[in-house]
Each structure stands twice: as structure tokens, then as C-alpha cells.
Amino acid sequence: MEVASNRIATVIGLGSMGWGAALSLLRAGFSVKGVDIRPTVLEAFRAEGGQAFATPAEAGSSDVVFVFVVNSYQANQVLFGETGALSTASPGTVFLLCVTMAPSATLDIAQKLEAAGMRVIDAPVSGGHVKALSGEITVMGSGADDAFEAAQDALDAVSAKVFRLGSDIGLGSKVKMINQLLAGVHIAAAAEALTLAAKVGLDLQTVYDVIKVSAGSSWMFENRGPHIVDGDYTPRSAVDIFVKDLGIVTGEAKQNGGETPLSATALSLFSQASAAGLGREDDAAVAKILARMSGVTLPGME
Amino acid sequence: MEVASNRIATVIGLGSMGWGAALSLLRAGFSVKGVDIRPTVLEAFRAEGGQAFATPAEAGSSDVVFVFVVNSYQANQVLFGETGALSTASPGTVFLLCVTMAPSATLDIAQKLEAAGMRVIDAPVSGGHVKALSGEITVMGSGADDAFEAAQDALDAVSAKVFRLGSDIGLGSKVKMINQLLAGVHIAAAAEALTLAAKVGLDLQTVYDVIKVSAGSSWMFENRGPHIVDGDYTPRSAVDIFVKDLGIVTGEAKQNGGETPLSATALSLFSQASAAGLGREDDAAVAKILARMSGVTLPGME
Predict the structure, then answer these.
(1) pLDDT at A181
(2) % helix / strand / coil in chain A, to the nearest 5?
(3) Residues of B in contact with A142 (CB under 8 A)
(4) Residues B135, B139: Cα–Cα separation, whole Å
(5) Predicted-assembly ipTM surpassing the 0.90 threshold
(6) What per-residue confidence (pLDDT) applies to A1?
(7) Are residues A30 and A120 located together in one domain of the fold?
(8) Does residue B186 share a domain with residue B165?
(9) Which CA distances in Å does B32 have to A111, A267, A273, B193, B246?
């Protein structure tokens, strides 16, 4: 679909996912305003043909605003803070909340935006850095039909698939929370499995090759397994992301009377990894904690 | 590959996997002797064109013997008991140990068979009932080259893929154990995720459809998820299988100084399900335990 001329998109937070979304919007023909606090990232975005701003307020008015910051605290800052987006946004602007947040936090932010005359889509995403770069992320979206219509071209530009989960804000965040429960437990399980494999003397590459095509496989085992097998903990997604996301899972479960023993166990492992100084390493580094507990040395460990 | 005439295979244990393997061997041209303690199963196997026996001793000599019983206790009984296979087996017979057992139990059994002049393949399988029926299971095999050569036609008949993990008996069982660690944790994680989804008011079919194509997916989520969504706990594989298999995982880990906190948490859930009388239901029934703990009613629950 051709994007109409003069369509303007702002992307707040040019991290792993936001950067890919911003480039995808540029490729689709949008004028894109990128916002980030890191000057080197802004410089790189200008080199790609984007406009770059240090604060959302400076970016000014747009048709759609993607919020790709890390957590609900930052989301509140970039939207409602002194230099936040709301200070210069025009009524009717569609805000796409792509941050993984507790459903209650998403709802709170959406209500404040709507009270100011803005439109909102609860729009957490899945797919990782590579799919963000190619404009092929999955959006778990909920919100009013007119918001989806007004943001259709922008959603088309960044995603391969948009799930329309309903009109209620919060549905997207809830489904994303369930996805993160599984993703986090599966990463920790991959770490536990490969660490035990090493402990009983198995060759990790062989184990990986067999499990990948067996009933024990998962998207995360297939994706993160090689990080552990190769001992490569260059952060694609960091340990601290899952300290946050599994914290949302266990917190929301507690608040609703739900029981999440596996999430709690996985959270404990990610928290231990973070406390050991591994918070910014790849999330597969949770294996190092299990390896230390087990007295085994995995590839890439001293 | 054409199977030579007069090739004889015995299959001990015509359960979910053994039944499929036995039919696959018949289709490939083997004379197949099926052994089971259940008269109705023997009758059904005769109707399929097989020979049927109540004890391995009665079945007499064969070229290859598949052992598809449930655990190491039964394996010892059907091999070394009074009416066990060893009492009538000819030296050189290849025994394929397809039971999921602790690696140490497999090694012990193999040593006793080899001391009696038999050949052994440590040959746990993966794939489930449907793939067993179509002769497409995966074998995680280890053993001597001559044993693999002598059983090649039989392995071809029952499997789509045979991993040759090395000559040491125990390697197959170790890799299978790692697979079961992941499989068991993933089933429990699927149950935890869908139960929390129900608790926060999400539509389970929608959650399943979204997660299945997202980073939270797993082979087990995709396979067992529908059992929970539909409330259908007809046993394809039972809760008690994972009480056993995760017991092997945590036991072997403990014996080797490994740490398996997620396996222990999942084992606790399967054990609670078994204690609540759900041991023979489908393994996805572990969700009922989480649902009771959470005060939510899943499909198929009263």
C-alpha cells in the first residue's frame, strides 16, 4: 500500500525494536522523527534519512506516535513529562503504546492520553530485533476501530501481522504478558536443560541439534540455545528485560489471585543473574547462574 | 528399502508408542511378535496380522527386540524375569531399549544383556502416538556400530530420523532426559500461561492463536494448548509419565550435583495432579491443579 505524502510518524525510543520500526517507516515513505536520549543514536538515525530529536516535545506534532521505551516509568516520562509528547501533540494523534507494561499501567496511560483528546492503541509487539528491521514484527493490538484505521499505514509499515484483540485497552498488554510468561520460562528452561546436559557430559551442539527437532523444542530454545552453545552473550535482549517482564507476570498474578510458580522460579533465576552483574548481557546468560550453582563451566565462562 | 524375508521383530509393550512401532514393522514386511499383558490388546494385534503373546518368553527368539514398557522396573521384569525375553533369546539378538529411563538404569540393563551375549541399542524415542503409527518417530540412539547395522531395517521401519549419538550406552538416555526436562516444563508452562490468561479474563482460543505464532510458543504449547482450550483431557500422554520423567531429571541432577529448579517446580505440579487423582488423564490436566489454586474454572472443569 502506498503511503500518502506528508504522513508523519514519531518513534520515541530508538532501541532494539524502535530502531527497526523507525527504519521500516522511513522505507514505507513516512517522514520519521526519531527521539532518543543518546546523541550517537540520533546521529545514526539522521544518516539513515530521519529527523532526530533529544526530546518528544522538540519533535512536535505527528500523525502517529510509536512509544518504544523500556518500561511504564519511561513511558509516563516521555508522554507526560515536562518535555513529553503531550506538550506539543495535536488532538486526534494516534499513540501506539508498544512498551511491555502491566495491563493496569497501560490502561492508566491510555486514560490520560484520551482525556487530552488523543487516540490510543495498546500495541505491544513480538518478534525481536531482526524482524523489527525488516518491518515484520507481530502486534498484539487492542483499541478503537478509528484509531486502527488512522494508524493502518503505519502498522502495515512495521508489522507482518496485527492481531486485533478487541476495543478495550489492556487486552493487548494482557496477551503480551502471557507471551512473556512463556518466553521467560522457556529461556530459563533452555538454560537449565543445556546446563544439566553439560553437567552429565553431553556435547551441547549435539543436544541442541536433537532437541530442536523434538518435542522439547520451543521458539526460545531454538533462538537462544545457540547463544549458550556458542558462549555468545552479546545482548540481543537483556536479562533485565525479563526481570521486568516476569515481575509484571508475577505481580499481576498476585493482584488477581493467580498462581504462577514457574514464572516465580524463572524470575528468581533472572534476578540472581542481574544481581551477579549480568543484567545487561543477553537473557540467555541466566545459564551462567545455573552453571555456577551446578559447578559446571559452559562455553564462554571463565 | 526392502526387508529381507524371514526377519523377525518382537515388540514388548503394545502401548501408545509400541503399538505404532509394531504396526510399522508389520507394514515393512517383518514377522512381528507382539507382547502385552492385556488380552484385548493381543486380540487387536492378531487382527492386524501380528502374532501375539502374553509373555516375552513365549514369543521366543527374534532378530530384534523392541522394549516399549513404561519404566525401568518393568524393563527389568520383561527382560530378566522368570518369563522374560532373555530366557528364550538367541545370542546376538539386538535389544532396542526404547523406554525413558534414568541413564544409570539403562546402563545397568545393557550390561546384563551384553553379559548374556546380546547386543544393545540405547534407543529412547520422541514423537508421540501419531508419529509412531506412521513409522515416523525420532530415535535418540547410542550403541555399537554392529548393533545399529543389524537393526537398520527395523529402525528404518519405525522412524523418520535416527540420531547416532555415539557408541556409549547411556548417551541416548541422557539426551532423552534433557528432552523430557524441556517437554515437562513446557507443558506446565503452557498450563500456567493459559490458566493466568483465564484468570485475567482473556479468551483462551485467542491467546492460543496469538502465542502459537509468537516468541512464547513451544512444541508442547502448540500440541497441548488445544487440550486446555477445549477442556479435552483424553490421555494422549498421561500426567504420571511426567511424574516419572521429571523424577528422573531431578534425581539424576541431584546425583550429579546439577541444579534444576524449574524441573522441580514442574514436577511438584505434576505430582499434585497425580495425587489429586488426575494421574491417568492427559498431561495437560496439570492445568486443573493451577486452576484450582487460582480459583478459576477452565473449560472441561466443573
Answers:
(1) 98
(2) 55, 15, 30
(3) none
(4) 11
(5) yes
(6) 57
(7) yes
(8) no
(9) 70, 51, 54, 44, 33
Query: Which of A68, A11, A65, A18 lies closest to A35, judged by CA?
Result: A11
Both B165 and B224 in one domain: the answer is no
Chunked in runs of 10, what are the mean pLDDT values of chain A (302 residues)?
85 96 98 98 98 98 97 97 97 97 97 98 92 94 98 97 97 98 98 98 98 95 98 94 97 97 98 98 98 97 86
Same domain, B203 and B101: no
- Domain's final residue, options A169, A196, A222: A169
User: Residue A300: inside a domain, yes or no?
Assistant: no
Distance CA B287, CA A284 (A): 27
Q: Are residues A143 and A243 in the same domain?
A: no
Say how far apart CA B150 and CA B79 lie, in whole Å. Answer: 20
- Grid coordinates belonging to B104: 544409570
CB of A197 closer than 8 Å to CB of A204 = yes
Collapsing DSSP states into helix, strand and coil, what is residue B97?
strand
Residue that the C-alpha cell 522505507 belongs to: A27
Are A161 and A212 in the same domain? no
Any domain includes A301: no
pLDDT in tens, B98-140: 999 999 999 999 999 999 999 999 999 998 888 999 999 999 9
**Which amino acid is located at B10 in the chain?**
T
Same-domain status, B206 and B135: no
Same domain, A164 and A179: no
In chain A, what residues touch B258 (CB-CB under 8 Å)? 195-196, 199-200, 294, 296
Burial environment of residue B226 by CB neighbours within 10 A (0 to 12, 13 to 18, 19 or more): middle
- Block residue for cell numbers 507471551: A179
pLDDT < 50: residue spans in chain B: none
Structurally, how many domains does chain B consist of? 2
Cβ–Cβ < 8 Å for B87, B70 = no
Cβ-based contacts of B179 with chain A (< 8 Å): 210-211, 214-216
Contact A210 B165 (CB under 8 A): yes
Among A33, A174, A176, A288, the active-site one is: A176
Q: Which residues pair with A97 in a beta bridge?
A: A67, A122
Looking at the domain assignment, is residue B192 inside a domain? yes
| CATH number for position A141 | 3.40.50.720
CATH number, domain of A279, equals 1.10.1040.10
Q: What is the pTM of this model?
A: 0.94
pLDDT for B1 equals 57
Q: What is the DSSP letter of A89?
A: P
B175:A207 CB<8 A: yes
**A235 located within any domain:** yes
Domain of A69 in residue numbering reads as 8-169
Using an 8 Å Cβ cutoff, are B197 and A174 in contact? yes
Domain boundary among A169, A201, A217: A169
